[in-house]
Structures are given as C-alpha cells and as structure tokens.
C-alpha cells in the first residue's frame, strides 16, 4: 500500500463500504479524522472519484448529524440518471471529461467499444480545433449532450 496515495486509500475505503451496503453513508469530518486529513481532502475524493460522470449519485445533508451518501447508479433502472449526466456536462467539457462520460456509457452497455472509438474521434482535440480551447470545449459539450439526449430516448423505449 506504500505506492498508494491518500486519495486512493480513501476511495478504496468508500468502495468497500459500497460493496457491503450498496451505498456509503459517511460524515465528512469523521472520515477526515479516520484518515488524518483535512475535510477538503474528502471533498476532493468525492468530487473527483464519485461523480455522475463515473456513475455515482452523491447526496449530502449539511449541519449537525449531516452526512454524505454515495451510491452507484444502475443506469438502466434510473430514468433520471442521464438527465443528471447532461446537467453535469454543463456548458463546457474537456476532452478528458468527455472521455470519462463516453467510457461510462460503454461500461454500462449503452454504447459499444467501437462506438466509443467513433464518438471519441469526433470529440477529440484535433477534430474540434477551432482555434480556441474554450470554444472547442463548448462545442464538445453540445455534441455530447446531444448524444446523451438521444440515448435517453432509446432507454425510455426499453421500459
């Protein structure tokens, strides 16, 4: 475990909790004490490793007795999941962010590995080279949200 950083260790712990209960419900300050880190480190792990783009829903309740609940989403059973993913893509997305989203779709069997290659060819930095990184990120987000909207309707037909 010497080659693992603290974020990896915290992530592994949360994944272990989810394996046992299908979700992890934690208090941020308690988890920070457990691993001797500042609470912002816990926020970093949750925001970077347990995002909607990676197939998780994170809910939080603030205040005394507040908690953070992390749950892996079963996409085909969660009608609103793609809507949340579309919202998370937002107005701009980087090539690496788009890559995460598209590979999640493949992992959840919404697109094939071949389709991932085709989609990523259209969303990569070279294909969207319009002379301005910000404009490319905006265009990439529009294209990705269009794809997600189309998939949302395909999923709705299955139910």
Task: Describe it.
- The protein has 159 residues and is mainly alpha-helical.
- The chain contains seven helices and three strands.
- It has a three-stranded antiparallel beta sheet.
- Strand 2 (56-61) and strand 3 (67-72) form a beta hairpin.
- Helix 4 runs antiparallel to helix 7.
Order of helices and strands: HEHHEEHHHH
Tally of extended strands? Answer: 3
CATH fold title of the largest domain: Non-ribosomal Peptide Synthetase Peptidyl Carrier Protein, Chain A
Largest sheet: 3 strands, antiparallel
Task: Output the number of helix runs.
Answer: 7
Q: Please give the CATH architecture of the largest domain.
A: Orthogonal Bundle
- Strand order, biggest sheet? 1-3-2
Distance between the termini: 44 Å
Judging from the principal axes of the Cα atoms, what is the shape?
elongated
Could you report the average pLDDT, rounded to the nearest whole number? 85
What structural class do you assign from the helix and strand content? mainly alpha
Low-confidence stretches: none
- Relative helix content: 55-70%
What count of domains describes the coordinates?
2
**Top-tier CATH class of the largest domain:** Mainly Alpha
Strand content: 5-15%
Task: Give the radius of gyration.
Answer: 18 Å
């Amino acid at each position: 475990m010497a080659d693992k950083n603290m974020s990896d260790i915290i992530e592994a712990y949360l994944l272990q909790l989810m394996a046992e209960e299908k979700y992890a419900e934690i208090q941020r300050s308690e988890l920070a004490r457990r691993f001797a880190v500042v609470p912002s480190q816990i926020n970093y792990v949750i925001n970077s490793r347990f995002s909607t783009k990676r197939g998780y829903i994170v809910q939080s309740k603030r205040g005394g007795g507040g908690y953070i609940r992390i749950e892996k989403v079963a996409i085909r059973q969660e009608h609103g999941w793609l809507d949340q993913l579309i919202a998370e893509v937002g107005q701009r997305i980087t090539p690496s962010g788009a890559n995460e989203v598209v590979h999640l779709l493949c992992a959840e069997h919404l697109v094939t590995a071949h389709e991932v290659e085709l989609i990523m060819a259209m969303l990569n930095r070279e294909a969207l080279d319009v002379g301005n990184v910000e404009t490319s990120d905006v265009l990439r987000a529009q294209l990705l949200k269009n794809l997600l909207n189309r998939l949302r309707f395909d999923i709705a037909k299955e139910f």
